[in-house]
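Example pasted here:
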Amino acid sequence: MKNKTKFILFIVVAILLVLFSSLTSIVAFVTDYQWFNELGYTDTFLKKLTTQISIGVPLFLILFFSIYFYFISSKRNYYKEAKITPPKGGERNLNIALGIGSALVSLLVSTTFAGGLWLNILQFINSSKFGLKDPIFNNDVGLYVFNIPLFKEIISLVLFLLFVLAVSTVVFYLLLISIRKPNIKRPENVLDMNKFKNKQTIKDILKKDIFKKALLKVGVFGFVGFVIIGVNYYLNTFDLLYSPRGVAYGASFTDINITLWQYRIMAVLSLISAFTILYGAYKRKLKTALSGPVLLITIGILGTVAGGLVQQFIVEPDEISKESEYIGYNIDMTQEAYGLKNVTQKEFPVEQNLTKEDIINNKETIENIRINDYQPLNQVYNELQGIRYYYKFNGVDTDRYMIDGKYTQVFLSAREMDVSKLKTKTWINQHLKYTHGYGFVLSPVNSVAPNGQPNLLVNSIPPVTSTDLKIERPEIYFGEMTDNYAVINSDEPEFDYPKGSDNEEVFYEGTAGISLGGINRVLYAIKEANLKLLISSNINNDSKIIINRNIKERVEKIAPFLEYDDDPYIVVNQEDGKLYWMIDAYTSTSNFPYSQPFSEESATNYIRNSVKVVVDAYNGDTDFYVFDEKDPMIKTYEKIFPGLFKSSDEMPKGIFSHIRYPENLFSIQSRIYETYHMENPVVFYNSEDVWNTGEEIYMGEEQPIKPNYKMFKLPEEEDVEFLLTVPYTPATKPNMTSLFVARNDGEDYGKLYLYRFPKGITVNGPMLVESKINQDSDISPQLTLWSQEGSNVLRGNIMTIPIENSLLYVEPVYIQAANENNIPEMKRVIVAYKDQIVMERDLDTALSKIFGDINKEESEDGEGTDPDDEEQTDQEKPVEGLDNIVKEANKLFNKAKKASQNGDWAKYGEYIEELESVLNKLNQNLGSDEPKEESPSEDVE
């Protein structure tokens, strides 16, 4: 009875120890389940668990009983051959040890298999056809993407298991011999005792079948192992499709004619080696057992040497004819892998015959030419619109909106809460009080205020706008910087936004959060490793905890099998006035035959922007929309996770209108297309027409041009579009050869175009224009002078703008005082057209200097008229009379002073801008034809 009680107590203690040691894992599982349930993705969360259990548990049981039975039977056979009688009390301890060992090996293999390969197994079961076959073996590409990787993983795991069993078998027999010595008959004649001890014992033992049986078992393992190695060599033949040996990525002449046959022969020799090892083990003939493996090694060495000789003496002297077929395969499959097969190529004549009328007729394009830049703009936003030290604009995005009836390209950025900047970093402040960011800033890409800073259409807190933009819910609970959890609906009201010298407070009204009632409070205190969640008196039964608020980590946790763009962007849905984050997600693989990897750092050679993820900035709702229904990889994931994805048709229109072709994907495609636009293998081999992405001088450094979003009319199109472009130049020349374009709007989203420029003329490339700017006798001395006056001259992106059949180049110039923390200000715009280069205060003035006054149209009587005169608002009309100007200046000065006293720096900035404009008018009335040009240092001050 006592033994039974002790046993029960032992079991209870063991269970408690297991539970305690696994407490963190249990809490993580429960809280993750609650979080996935909150988002409506319970099936997605459980899919991994159910798959691992359905694979791992049966595999563990099969392996455990097989391995345990194998060792028990081996022990019985040993006893039989060694004429050993098992102890009367049994061998409980030995059997338990065998059971524990079998369980450990089985657990290791089953958890590795189910834990690491569950998704591979589901991909294999649910695999989709690519509808494209490789050119060598004529297999569907899906075989290489979904099947072969799983086969190779299984082979590695089985070989590992066989190795463990073989070693365990040897160790097991040595252990048995040491603890259960064979029962050998001792000689009756005492005189023969020394002989027995010294020689006969070993000989008799060897004569026994003990070691023969053990050796045979090892031979069986070797047999199975070499059969699997043979299968592996067969699979290695498919790896030649990723060979880097030849001129182009993929199987080359030597790979197909030498290495392929080497692998096939070695596959057959592996099967022969399996039988020689088994036979040699059975007959205890070491030479026979090793003959197959030695021959296998010999063929491997000879094949490698032969491959090198063929490559050097047969292929390289006649490389074009030997490799052209395989280069063609590489070109074709690489274009398929990166979605470049459907690039529409068109001729762009580049007539360079623009007139003033052309400029006026393309007003919508002109009004959306970007004269602001991301890098300085981010600093400006943070300096002028950060409002408080704990707010931060993490990055600036570009998008397009219908603003007051006009299709307008804009910059915008979300104002997020950076709790790391809080001066009082208490637990309440970090998790209960300062829970969210507030609003965003939006400015058009084409205009600046008189002081060179962006013209803000949405600014301040709460958001202020003079446009028809709808802003109903500016709070940001989910974003790029929300790395900590937040407790909402507590007894402590949340800080909403600053209001003068006071703060506005609020209670969360959304749907996000998991209840902290009951046991949940204990669970999340353990999960977040913070006792305050459990003991805080501010938390009540209505309180909720919001976790995984960082949008990048959020989507990765839901669907870790996708890759995500590193540049999420904020969207203002004009249907409901709420803020949403858009994140581009990709399917990718490194197993696409013959396709060139896109970089030396990555093996990825297939990519699709198949999914766009939308995250509600207020409620955290996360939706995955499929945008490439033809992608076989996303088709497979849709089968695996049927409740995860939605059709692109289900995306709300207010968000759908802001989808963008991803800049990162376009950058990869444009880099690949520099070489893979060449479809002739001979031209490709000789690199006769290799392109480079155009270069520019950006912020003082020469660098390749990154893809830029622009708005202009494509040839043969009537409307301005939001487009992503990058210019190409020949590899060794500065002239421009073509423009690569991705469309973003409506049904044309995702279409790629290449506009080729005429080869018979020289089209200025971006760097050639930059060089001409540096050499210009008017511009270059001015830039040098400003640099010597204690200011930094920063040149922004050079924009290549197609208008009609011509190209216009525009580059903003920023000036920044050399002192620390000074804001860059856009002071000049450089416009280049044909051989003309001008630098003026604004774009209109620069264009007018080249083409004539674009703000005036010729009337019927030949006199110039200003089309904007009738539309000028009272604010835009000049203030007549010196007295009125002085009064207006004093009025604005007093307003600015009052705003600074109230801490309303946004209004202060606006009044100062207006004051500067009024003072310029005063300067004009005092006798100058135009405002006196200030030095850059004065502008900054």
Summary: Confidence is low (pLDDT under 50) at residues 858-880, 927-941.
